[in-house]
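job 3f2a | input accepted
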Amino acid sequence: MLGISLRRPKVIAAALAAATLVTVLGSSTPSVFADGGVQPTPDEGHRTRPTIVLVHGAWADGSSWNGEIRRLQARGFDVQVAPQPGRGPSIDSGYLKDFLSTIEGPIVLAGHSYGGFVISDAATGNRNVKALVFVDAFAPDKGETVEELTAGSGSILEPALTDPTSVFRLVPFPGAPEGAADAYVLPKVFIPGFANGLPRRQAEVLAVTQTALATNALGEPATEPAWKTIPAWAVVGTEDLVIPPARQEEMMKRAGADITRIDAGHLGLISHPDQVTRVILEAARTTA
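job 3f2a | predicted structure (288 res):
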């Protein structure tokens, strides 16, 4: 008479059952932070997710992060690959600092190799950068240089400190500082030293698609490091011949980083993207 359905009790019961089921299964709701390529749910809006900014190392380009980019994008993250001109920490960190200034909201900043030097310089004072991730990377203290951190480490680059041509092909470039040149790692050093753990053919391609690093970059000192004020994570390749594990461990422990060790060479971001992505996701959880 009042338009009330005689089936209403069944509707209410069904609704209560559904609510109970959601409560019971709530802990298994897919998340952008879950492993295994789980897609994000609609209620995990972009407001709760950091932007992931990736900085490649010397003698590389942004494609070295391709494995991590695919995995992070599949989880719904905004991923940016920052410019890295390879002109030296003062210029390279300046580029990155300006790049970061255009990003709103929390940032997870990851750097590989020389890129770790750059992110540590550039992130200082940027309140949006909530986490640093060093992947087979340098994490210098104020005043330290790549040369100093390489000396005595057993790195395959160490002979270049006394004879640059034993490791690098040197090429002039316009506007170079006095005595500086563009350096490319010789294939005989790159293939067994940088790319150990990768298939030979892939290593050969990487050896001839290098981007240059100006030699003045090796002697420029770091500024006040961001890891003194920003939480840090690290991936250390136990077979790294470029920045040997013992030297990485020294820097990362000094930085208070949460360290993950993987059975990989210097290019672990290429050979082990699942493990590197997992560490980036762990850092991202702290910003959610």
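job 3f2a | Residues 1-30, 36-46 have pLDDT under 50 and may be disordered.
job 3f2a | closed
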